Amino acid sequence: MFSVLKERVGDVLLPGDEFCCGPQETLSLTDSGKPERLVAGPGIRQSGDRLLVSRSGVLRHKEPNKFWIESQQRRYVPAKGETVIGIVTAKSGDVFKVDFGGSEQASLSYLAFEGATKRNRPNVQVGDLVFAQFVVANKDMEPELVCIDGSGRANGMGVFGAGGLLIKVSLGLVRRLLAPHSDLRADLEKLFPCELVVGMNGRVWVRAASVQQTLIVANLLQSCDTMTPSQRQQLFKRVQQGGL
């Protein structure tokens, strides 16, 4: 099945497509250390001796044996440990309510900030943007966010957003931006030096040297959502030459 899957890498697959697992192959959702085991990522699930595609998108592969479906999904499902961009919508006692784009709002304690105490409360207002991390995220409990890491440090999290622009993109584009050696991020930095805050929930905050450059970067990011790498390079070249 490895050879069959590798032949289909880059192809568009649809829900219901399946691959049969031979007797010498083993499926695993967690063990990625053994090259003889196949790791099924997002969009692919195991059913007996078969691999079933559960979402439409492009089949991707990472050596040695990880396969997943890359799609233009926009609906975000919270996961513990992921960082997101949220909007403070209300204050309720000692807890802030934060909209992160999910099916329900998350709670954020005023003590979940670096240096916060009962006397030294953080200056958080309704409408502020926060970059926070999920510590509780399951279907049976209210999602809970914090703006500190395990050692109590902010580590880049907290209230932010002055002078920038918040946009919404697909979750696939977010993963491309957060990749260790992202071509998209490198191409953007060559065009306009800018600050990016990327949330796993599909929200991206952008700030460049001027309002005009900020709007251009935001429009480029949203345009790249459905472009191939060659189309993106042509677009960036036109922008660099002043064609837009």
TrEMBL record:
Subcellular localization, as worded in the UniProt entry: Cytoplasm; Nucleus, Nucleolus
UniProt-listed CDD domains: KH-I_Rrp40 (cd22526), S1_Rrp40 (cd05790)
UniProt cross-references to InterPro entries, sorted A to Z: Exosome_RNA_bind1/RRP40/RRP4, KH_dom_type_1, KH_dom_type_1_sf, NA-bd_OB-fold, RRP40_KH-I, Rrp40_N_euk, Rrp40_S1
SUPFAM superfamilies referenced in this protein's UniProt entry, alphabetically: Eukaryotic type KH-domain (KH-domain type I), Nucleic acid-binding proteins, Ribosomal L27 protein-like
CC per GO annotation: cytoplasmic exosome (RNase complex); nuclear exosome (RNase complex); nucleolus
Stretches assigned to the K Homology domain: 164-212
Name the UniProt record assigns to this protein: Exosome complex component RRP40
Parts forming coiled coils: none
UniProt keyword terms in alphabetical order: Cytoplasm, Exosome, Nucleus, RNA-binding, rRNA processing
Species assigned in the record: Cyprinodon variegatus
Domain Exosome complex exonuclease Rrp40 N-terminal, first and last residues per copy: 41-75
Family per similarity comment: Belongs to the RRP40 family.
Molecular function via GO: RNA binding
Biological-process GO terms, alphabetical: CUT catabolic process; exonucleolytic trimming to generate mature 3'-end of 5.8S rRNA from tricistronic rRNA transcript (SSU-rRNA, 5.8S rRNA, LSU-rRNA); nuclear polyadenylation-dependent rRNA catabolic process; poly(A)-dependent snoRNA 3'-end processing; regulation of gene expression; TRAMP-dependent tRNA surveillance pathway; U4 snRNA 3'-end processing
